[in-house]
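Sample A.
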Amino acid sequence: MSKRTDSNGYTMMFAVIMVFVVGSLLAFLASSLKPAIKENERIEKQQNILYAMGVNENDASNANFVSTKVAGAEFKKYIKKQLVLEGNKISESQDAYLIDVKKQQANAKDGKVRKLPLFVGEKEGKTFYVAPIRGKGLWDAIWGYVSMDENMVVQGAYFDHKGETPGLGANIKQRYFMDDFIGEHLMTEDGVFKGITVKKGNNDAVNEDKTDYEVDAIAGATITGDGVSAMIKKDLSLYVPYFKNLKK
């Protein structure tokens, strides 16, 4: 007598076998692809840091990273020091760019000392200090890198997001928005940290005033803009003691 293949038992057994086979295949693929994924993340972080200090392949209007083929070499060329600020302790680390900012923010909430990466770069005889920042947009995480001089005047910025609305909040990674931050002051002449507010109707649409601590908002992206303002003020304020010590 032939075996029935339309019984409930057969269907359940077939489903269990398929789940096992597919699960095993996905686990294998995830394991085998993990080194490549990590390498891509490493290169992307290097590209982000370089972009913030003006090492990029921008054209007249678009934001473009340096090629993945040269990112590692360019990173070594321009980044002279990778620092880790940990309370009153400052140390050097060749892997500071791999520090997980999200994890460090969580550590700080748990009362642990947060590790703050800071990248010291040199280009055309000028020193740049690049710091990572991370916050919350409308739908999910937003993050970026801000390049500053010794007076905490912004020299460049790169922003990105996980799931902001296309054409609205997602435009924080458009060049026209990121370029607005160049030249903006983060501190007053008296050393008071002010940050930068992304503000609608700030009466400076072309951002000529670089000491008003504001840039013009993206239309229709108020919450995302508020998230950018918040992560700049919250994360970059942590670096103020370092910059004040530079002047001593």
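Sample B.
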Amino acid sequence: MYEYISGKLTSLTAATAVVDCGGVGYLLEITLNTYSAIQEMQEVKLWVHEIIREDAHILCGFFTQKEREMFRLLLGVNGVGAATARMMLSSLSVDELTNAVATNDVKLVQRVKGIGAKTAQRIVLELQDKVGGPTATGMAAAPVVSQNKEEALGALVMLGFPKAAADKVLQGLDNSLSVEGLIKEALKRL
């Protein structure tokens, strides 16, 4: 529902930030990497992921879209919740985590507090096909997500197609296609 929140940073701790946007203060849970990036800033723009639970609506804020995308990928791993994903992104940068997954470095993932051997293996295994391989610098490429593909995925889900199936079809399509083009091609393949 929320893409980003932009406004005056009114309160900041290592785990939360309050952003005043139009007279409303939004409390966002953040990672240590985001905290480090915004601690000297007065005005911020945080990319948001909303978590709706029976007992709470939680907003998680990220300094970059790349970090938010990795957070979402982690949430898709069986047994990894929001707290664990935030802990991982507080302990490792997106590039370090991407590289660990791309190179099967289970030990690095396991060093994160609260991540056991089985969970680390599951994370590496399930994210392997969703992150790029190592780059020439030795670091893995960040997950590439086309804005058009995100919009097309949302439209396909609203049309009643399962998210996993629609996402799989969209991954095989050309990034240069328009949203309409992506939807038309995906409909042919679904």
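B remarks: The longest helix spans residues 147-158. The beta strands are 4-12, 16-21, 24-30, 43-52, 57-62.
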